Amino acid sequence: MIKKRWWKEAVVYQIYPRSFYDSNQDGIGDLKGIIEKLDYIEDLGIDVIWLCPIYKSPNADNGYDISDYKSVMDEFGVLNDLERLIEEIHKRSMKVIFDLVVNHTSDEHDWFIKSRNSLDNEYRDYYIWREGKDNNKPPTNWESFFGGSTWTYDSKTDQYYLHLFAEKQPDLNWENKEVRFNIYDMMRWWLDKGIDGFRMDVINMISKDQGFPDGDKTPNGDYGDGKPYFLNGPCLYEYIKEMGEEVLFNYDIMTVGETLDFGVENAKKFSEVNGKELLDMVFHFELMSVDCRDENKWRKKDINLQEIKRIYKKWNQGLYEKGWNAIYLGNHDQPRIVSRFGNDEKYRKKSAKMLATMMLTMPGTPFIYQGEEIGMTNVSFNDIGKYRDIETIDHYRIETNKGRSKGRVMKEIHRVSRDNARTPMQWNDDLNAGFTQSTPWINVNSNYKEINVEKSINDPDSIYNYYQNMIKIRKNNLGLIYGKYKPILEEHNSIFSYIRKFNEDKYLIIINFFGQNLSIEIPINKKLKEIDLIISNYKDAILNDKGLSLRPYESLMFKLS
Ligand code: ISL
Ligand code: CA
Fold this sequence. Notes:
The chain is α/β, with parallel strands linked by helices. About 25% of the residues lie in helices and about 15% in strands. The chain has 16 helices and 23 strands. The strands form six sheets. An eight-stranded parallel beta sheet has the order 13-10-9-5-2-1-15-14, with helices on one face. Helix 11 (about 350-360) runs parallel beside helix 15 and helix 12 (about 390-400) packs antiparallel against helix 13. About 50% of the residues are buried. Calcium ion binds next to loops.
């Protein structure tokens, strides 16, 4: 039996505050801006908002480098605005979860400022300091996620500190109990302010193999892969369980872990301990690498639907009754979903609705990233100077320094830069898409006159209205939430089809994932003409006795019983 829980029935909307709405005309989205737009989110049918980091930060990585966990980023407002935001969200019967970024802090966090001061201060052990190796080489050969070594030398104490991400994001030392308990205290502090849970940033990186071995050379050449030594490390379970006992078990909250290379078995193991909820669900990354080679996001590969089907099948069946899935196709780190998995030109509307159908009929809690609901697309700035993302800028510098052509590197950036998802939300066709009256911190996508909220709300055939409708349907049909997942037509290379079954309710979903016309037979006992078509992204369905004809990106959902 599946346990019913509010967070299983929820649809989540992710907000990237910097790019959502600017209320005071400084070019940067802010908390008051979010408050002004809450009715919009509520109207869409959203239950839970995930707020990307809003804590004090020098913004080396847009808030994922926190310098004070208990105060608000200057540009976003003050604590009082945040408290009001929480209150306004609750007033609308929605909930809010915060980003919990505790693998690392900013190098401007008080703890790190003290830590780096001397070898023997009381904060030294809050971070991971090691002696260099051989002739002043870093302690390990690990490559950081943003390129370069994971170690930076600090001349003050003649040691290196570890940072899996940027130099300005030193990793906390979770081996230190005081660090852990400081974090639990901070979590309780926010929960006691009424927030409803956490999205836990790179949470399966917090425990490192204390041997700090070198990794195998990466295809990239210069560095080694440290992942085997910092992903799912030796004490990870112990720490998360401790976090459960100290914090999570005492609140009715929702937790979602961001976990690279975690696997279904870990997802199960971490979901509960003795019936108490730990990590309710996780963001795995398997769908995020179906279009890249060698696990390298910059190298393109064509999408193979079979691979996508295998991933969903594995997770949906693997976690059935034993855990729960988080469903997402994009977020602030990924390209826009319609540009990546759909077609952002001729079939933008059709393919965006197709993807919405898939996300909202899958088992698991769906996460919609801001702008997805109006079909926002990738951006192609012509000049690297227009990009703001640290990963993108580092990539450009490292690759062009190697002598690669600027044009080719820019092409990679246009395809997968994280800034694709970070351009301002397109509210209307006014200056800067109505996001701000002044210069935005990052340019808006030039297609905002065509793609914007105002236009979408007024167009009954819009992607926005489809999402709204689809969300309603999901809520009114518990089978779409709790139903068992059964794939059909598994061998088909371009049709994605499955049945969701819950008690007496049975739903059939048929998705043409690509842009060709096709005819198919559906292996069910009933005639399609005799069953109810609940929703489709075309006006009608072309049915015959055995099956149907599908147009580009056509997606349909029938109720079988
Ligand atoms: O974005 C990525 C690939 O382009 C990932 O490598 C990403 O860095 C990884 O998924 C971890 O993401 C999270 O932690 C990072 C932060 O930069 C991301 O924005 C965040 O979602 C470090 O805190
Ligand atoms: Ca502002």
